[in-house]
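Fresh eyes needed here. Have a critical look at this protein's tokenised backbone.
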Amino acid sequence: MESRLPRGAGLGFRRELLPELQAGVPATVEFFELAPENWAGVGGRAARQLRAFTERYPFVCHGLSLSPGGCLPLDVGLLQAIRRFMAVHGIGLYTEHLAWSSDADGQLYDLLPLPCTGEAVRWTAARIRQAQDVLGMRIGIENASYYVAPPGAEMSEAAFIRAVVEEADCLFHLDVNNIVVNARNFGFDPLRFLHDLPLERTCYLHVAGHHREPDGLLIDTHGAGVIDEVWQLLAAAYRRVGPLPTCLERDFDFPPLAVLGAEVAQIAGLQARVGAEVAA
């Protein structure tokens, strides 16, 4: 199938949503995103269900387990399977988290932060370049949420992200909610952080909801509605990068599809309003 890139506003493709999606996709949803680890190699009914959607809509692959900053060799077999999967379903964009998620014992099922050092830049960028060679395309690397800052930093987080993206010659996947979560947990200005990122390389954006603990700690759960602060920062991002394709992430505690569709409509409305502002 010919590869297609996303545009407009999209929604995470989850099995829990399939019955409602099969009954009717909200008109504002222009593309879907999935985790290729959950679908590559799947056959039977699930494969047929997915194909019914990839024939009608562009999809994005957003990886969970590549571990670009990890110490183990990259899983080349996984990357090759993802490349085949993307070709079969006409998927033109793959992104991953700037984090590490595996060690000698296997997958940790968590995204852990990297030290902001020159050595980590060189190590991670080399692995991203290797992944791009296997996939045969430039990939997007996402700014991740974290709850402990590794010691020994030689540069700011934003400078680290920029250095990795430039050294790897890859694209940048901007997660707006992750900026808000980290800014509130670590006490920095989210707007200033946004403007320090390599926005000129942005290919794709995320918005999502999060959970607030009684002590004020924010947890990036993707299990709640998007808050006003995230919408405001998304608008600021659009003013810098334009109304690039943006996905609403929702991973559990799913409301009715109509509610998710309304949030996707908010993305689309914001894209239209900021696009009109920029054009004026």
The mean pLDDT is 94. The chain has one domain: 9-279.
